[in-house]
Design brief:
11 strands; Rossmann fold; alpha/beta; quercetin 3-O-glucosyltransferase activity; UDP-glycosyltransferase; single chain; 3-stranded parallel β-sheet; 6-stranded parallel β-sheet
């Protein structure tokens, strides 16, 4: 019986990295930027995803999408890698490494280990999220949360890192505001317990942040490599699947620099009618120019209804855009901190001693 090795040949000059993100925009975008940076630093990259990336209303049930993807991956990933590596056209460019989304990582990491591939997880959230996931067992042991579904048993602030502000237990990421049952919470919490263990398995955990964002973050795991901020090459837009709403630009150009409050809540956050009205009234009371990004599915199961007369009253004050991304800047201290972080991020993205060096070191390790 003939045998074709799936392992890299002795003369392979550059690593060939297979990237596997969850097929949602917020996951695909950083993976695409990661891929461009890996190519820039000498790797060959294959990007593996579904034929269609869920957009807008197509991903209302992200939890089911994750479960379906987890169910499909084990039966196809190994055969795909074997087929790619057995194809004589690949020559000395066989797949040698796998970088997988932390959400999908359990089975792909096991497959990579079985096939002798080097493997890494991309963790694209913030250091605080990673710290919270890694501290879950300690929170259970301290009696702060329930071990079954993460229900809060002691309502107190938690200091996860000396570099991060104390976290209110109401802000634990497995809790969804307005959720009428704890079914989602339990499923999410149990999955994060699994992620807690998975993060300790791969050769590397690539993180989309830089050292100054949280100096203590690199001590959370021994195999962390900070590669952030992940940015596109030469300012090109990478990982965006639709054009932005540009109708607000003429209005923005007429505002004073740094004077506009920007409000957005990502691609999946839901608001109840009361929360939506509170935010609208708050913006009106502040009395400052604002740009509010409101998705078509922003409300939880109901159509969007602004407070009576709100749109007429804020005609000259604010603009409402059909978009998807969010942050809030009105406090001068927050604004100054954001500008400082922006400068640090730009320096790390471009200087030789920042994430560029970490990428070079990572690619060099892939070649060993």
């Amino acid at each position: 019986m003939g045998h074709t090795s799936i392992f890299p040949g002795p003369h392979q000059a550059n690593p060939h990295v297979l990237l596997l993100p969850l097929p949602l925009l917020g996951h695909v975008a950083p993976f695409m930027k990661l891929g461009h940076q890996l190519v820039r630093h000498g790797s060959k990259v294959t990007f593996l995803t579904t034929e269609f990336i869920p957009l807008e209303d197509d991903h209302k049930d992200d939890d089911q999408l994750v479960q379906r993807f987890l169910h499909v991956i084990p039966g196809h990933l190994e055969s795909l890698i074997r087929k790619a590596n057995e194809d004589e056209l690949t020559g000395n460019s066989r797949i040698t490494s796998l970088v997988v989304d932390v959400v999908l990582s359990r089975d792909p990491i096991e497959i990579a280990e079985k096939m002798g591939l080097k493997h890494a997880i991309l963790f694209s959230s913030s250091p605080g999220v990673l710290a919270l996931i890694l501290h879950i067992p300690k929170l259970i042991e301290a009696g702060i949360i329930d071990a079954d579904d993460g229900t809060v048993k002691k309502n107190e602030k938690i200091q996860l890192s000396p570099s991060l502000p104390a976290l209110d237990s109401a802000d634990f990421i497995w809790r969804r505001p307005g959720n009428k049952s704890n079914l989602y919470q339990k499923d999410m919490f149990q999955y994060l317990l699994l992620v807690n263990q998975i993060l300790k398995v791969p050769n590397w955990v690539l993180c989309n942040w830089f050292h100054e964002l949280d100096p203590s973050a690199t001590a959370l795991l021994p195999n962390i490599i900070s590669v952030g901020p992940l940015v596109a090459n030469y300012g090109k837009s990478i990982g965006n699947f639709w054009s932005g709403d540009l109708t607000c630009l003429p209005w923005l150009d007429r505002q004073s620099p740094g004077s506009v409050i920007y409000i957005a809540f990502g691609s999946s956050s839901k608001f109840g009618q009361e929360q939506f009205h509170e935010l609208a009234f708050g913006l009106e009371l502040i009395g400052k120019p604002f740009l509010w990004v409101v998705r078509s599915d922003f409300m939880d199961g109901i159509s969007i209804e602004y407070p009576d007369g709100f749109l007429d009253r804020v005609t000259n004050l604010g603009k409402i855009a059909k978009g998807r991304w969010i942050g809030l800047l009105s406090d001068e201290g927050i604004k100054a901190n954001a500008l400082q972080l922006k400068e640090l991020a730009q320096n790390h993205a471009h200087e030789e001693g920042g994430s560029s060096k970490n990428f070079r070191d990572f690619v060099a390790q892939l070649m060993l």
